[in-house]
């Protein structure tokens, strides 16, 4: 029994490599917070001392001073519970991915409408019957005519905007 107690006690000491990895992880998290847009940073639940340190880090221009300030931010992060901070950052990243996915979906429909014409219009109307068919056909025809004449894609941009609004209304929860 005594040998087991000594064995357990021997490994209670923190692993130095693990501590270094955690410190580096907190430094990267601090760098991410410092580089965020101020409007995005306001959405993150931060303690006041950490928020002040981040604001100061943004104003420091000297390389050495900025590095020391970022180390301080990492230290403050290690002393605080960062689960809410990480959750807010993950939610922000998820929202950005969803917006990018929606953008690409609309862009794909627009390109398909411009390339294929009426068959693509019919396919879109089959999946979204609530769309205004006459307005869609008019926008697609104008954009295709514009592209055929080699003009700047103003009508294609208008088609994209219309699709973005129409598809957002069609699926408000999506």
Structural summary, described in words:
With 174 residues, the chain is an all-alpha fold. It folds into two domains: 2-85, Diphtheria Toxin Repressor, domain 2, CATH 1.10.60; 93-170, PSPTO4464-like domains (Diphtheria Toxin Repressor, domain 2). It is built from nine helices and no strands. The chain has helices at residues 2-10, 16-35, 38-41, 48-59, 63-79, 83-116, 118-127, 133-148, 154-170. The protein is elongated and about 75 Å long. It starts with a helix and ends with a helix.
Mean of residue pLDDT values: 88
Please give the alpha-carbon distance between the first and last residues: 60 Å
Q: What is the level-2 CATH architecture name of the largest domain?
A: Orthogonal Bundle
How is the main sheet built? none
Give the oligomer, counting copies of the same chain as homo and different chains as hetero. single chain
| CATH class value of the largest domain | Mainly Alpha
Question: Would you identify the regions where 5 or more consecutive residues have pLDDT less than 50?
Answer: none
Beta percentage is: under 5%
Total domain units = 2
Structural classification:
mainly alpha
The radius of gyration computed from the alpha-carbon positions, rounded to a whole number of angstroms, is: 27 Å
Helix share of residues? over 70%
The geometry reads as: elongated
Order of helices and strands: HHHHHHHHH
Number of helices: 9
CATH fold name of the largest domain? Diphtheria Toxin Repressor, domain 2
DSSP strand tally:
0
């Amino acid at each position: 029994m005594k040998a087991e107690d000594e064995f357990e006690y021997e490994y209670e000491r923190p692993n130095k490599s693990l501590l270094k990895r955690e410190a580096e992880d907190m430094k990267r998290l601090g760098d991410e917070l410092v580089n965020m847009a101020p409007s995005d940073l306001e959405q993150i639940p931060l303690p006041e001392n950490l928020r002040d340190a981040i604001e100061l880090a943004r104003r420091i221009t000297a390389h050495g001073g900025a590095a020391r300030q970022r180390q301080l931010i990492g230290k403050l992060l290690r002393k605080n519970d960062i689960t809410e901070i990480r959750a807010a950052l993950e939610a922000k990243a998820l929202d950005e991915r969803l917006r990018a996915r929606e953008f690409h979906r609309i862009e794909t429909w627009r390109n398909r409408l411009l390339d294929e014409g009426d068959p693509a219009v019919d396919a879109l109307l089959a999946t979204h019957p609530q769309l205004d068919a006459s307005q869609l056909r008019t926008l697609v025809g104008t954009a295709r005519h514009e592209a055929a004449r080699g003009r700047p894609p103003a009508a294609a941009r208008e088609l994209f905007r219309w699709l973005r609004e129409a598809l957002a209304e069609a699926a408000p929860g999506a």
